[in-house]
Specification:
Layout (H helix, E strand, L loop, with lengths): L2 H5 L18 E4 L2 E7 L9 E7 L8 E3 L3 E8 L1 E6 L2 E6 L3 E4 L5 E4 L6 E8 L4 H7 L1 E3 L11 H10 L5 E3 L6
Antiparallel strand pairs: 1-2, 1-11, 2-3, 3-10, 4-12, 5-8, 5-10, 6-7, 6-9
Amino acid sequence: MNALAMKEPHRMTNLPLIRKPNEGRTIAVVGDVYRFLAIGDDTNGKYAMWEAIVPPGGGPPPHVHRREEEGFYILEGEITFTVNGEKVVAMAGMFANMPVGTPHSFKNESDQPAKMLISVAPAGLEKIFMEVGVPLADGATTALPPTKQEIEKLLAVAPKYGIEIRVPHHD
């Protein structure tokens, strides 16, 4: 133990965190809007949580996480999850958990934006969004559609974060 730790044995490494509505780093991730409520730096790496606004047609391609569990709680609208090839429409108040290694995707197949909370444990996945996303103003609720470059960047960096993206192959 270092000298400081011995002098302050009860010192917390993180302070309590309260986010008000519209507070939190906000990033466009391939067309979806993510507002980060807690990241690994806030939770000693135990989990991360963000609010996701998914526009009609939005959502990621099928993918697999090799490191973290991912939970989804639908706040508004509806999200269609595809899990192991099976589709389930989740409405407000529904929750879905994807264990490590579960092939899944989600898409807003409705004509209205959907809002959900996404949590991952342990934290770390949020770092890919910081790397590939487009910063937005606090309180932003919409993003431009993703550019080809944004999509290519996401595909290129995903393996570094233990994500296998299963894009359809075109011959």
